[in-house]
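Moderator note: this is an archived Q&A kept for reference. The question asked for a predicted structure of one protein chain; the sequence and the answer are reproduced below.
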Amino acid sequence: MPARPFEITGNMDYGTKAQRIWDRSRSRIYNAGTGEVYRDNTLSIGRAVCNQGTFVDFAAHLYRITGDAGVLADAQKAADFVINNMTTNGILSNNATYLRVYIT
């Protein structure tokens, strides 16, 4: 997690790097209109809960560093996307056939 070194050391160089990684990631894999986090920057591979969660976790750490309300809003939108689009009756579901995960 790019923000953790700053949280541990207080070294602002780490905070600056975390912000740059966030900006790049947000511009390449995040749909600000829907809250969906894509699996890669080609936007050709479907969604995955783990990517949504990693994005939300990173945003939470970065928000603690920066206090940037926009980062927190992105995290909320990404979490809402999971709730509204990736659950069945409130339970996380895996309908993504490309993951080839089978539950018996």
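Archived answer notes: The chain has a mean pLDDT of 83.
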